[in-house]
């Protein structure tokens, strides 16, 4: 943001490794509930495993290699949080400048361990706005409402 205006944004279009569904799949494979246990387990890690920042196939392979080598589950879960952050920064942000006002939205932003990984890597505070998981839908609804000429039959606009 500059002077209250969004000046840049980007989404991960190339790889599923930065998505909540990737985290959810890996948590299931580790028999961890993504909503109830993942954050707590990740935060209990003493040394998050380096699982890389590549695509899901390689990260998943690294996860199970580390598991077979006896890495503690908390370090694997913590490593997943960091891997998502590194994947996004290296594959999506690339060399673009990251400002000081960083907003993180979408379902993955609900995971406090991923937010914490971003904050630690960037050494910056990340803002996760209320209702972050549906902000895209809210924005699309506002654009649709503003683009509607005349009265709409959609009752939701009146709310």
Characterization of this structure:
Helix 3 (about 55-70) runs antiparallel to helix 4 (about 75-95) and helix 4 crosses helix 5. A two-stranded parallel ribbon has the order 1-2. The protein contains six helices and two strands. The chain is about 45% helix and about 5% strand.
Please tally the β strands and state the result. Answer: 2
Which CATH-level-2 architecture of the largest domain? 2-Layer Sandwich
CATH topology of the largest domain: Nucleotidyltransferase, domain 5
For the record, what is the CATH homologous superfamily label of the largest domain?
ATPase, nucleotide binding domain
**% residues in beta strands:** under 5%
Notable characteristics:
mainly alpha; two-stranded parallel ribbon; 159 residues; 2 strands; 3% strand; Nucleotidyltransferase, domain 5
Summed up, what is this model?
Residues 3-144 form the ATPase BadF/BadG/BcrA/BcrD type domain. It contains 6 helices and 2 strands; from the N terminus they run H-H-H-H-E-H-E-H.
């Amino acid at each position: 943001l500059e002077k209250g205006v969004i000046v840049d944004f980007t989404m991960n279009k190339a790889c599923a490794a930065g998505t909540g569904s990737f985290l959810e799949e890996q948590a299931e494979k580790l028999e961890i509930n993504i909503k109830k246990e993942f954050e707590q387990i990740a935060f209990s890690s003493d040394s998050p495993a380096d699982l890389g920042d590549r695509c899901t196939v390689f990260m998943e392979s690294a996860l199970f290699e580390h598991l077979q080598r006896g890495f503690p589950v908390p370090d694997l879960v913590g490593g997943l949080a960091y891997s998502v952050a590194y994947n996004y920064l290296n594959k999506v942000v690339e060399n673009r400048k990251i400002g000081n006002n960083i907003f993180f939205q979408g379902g993955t932003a609900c995971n406090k361990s991923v937010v914490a990984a971003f904050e630690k890597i960037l050494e910056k505070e990340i803002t996760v706005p209320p209702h972050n998981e549906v902000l895209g839908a809210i924005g699309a609804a506002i654009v649709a409402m503003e683009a509607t000429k005349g009265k709409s039959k959609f009752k939701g606009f009146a709310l």
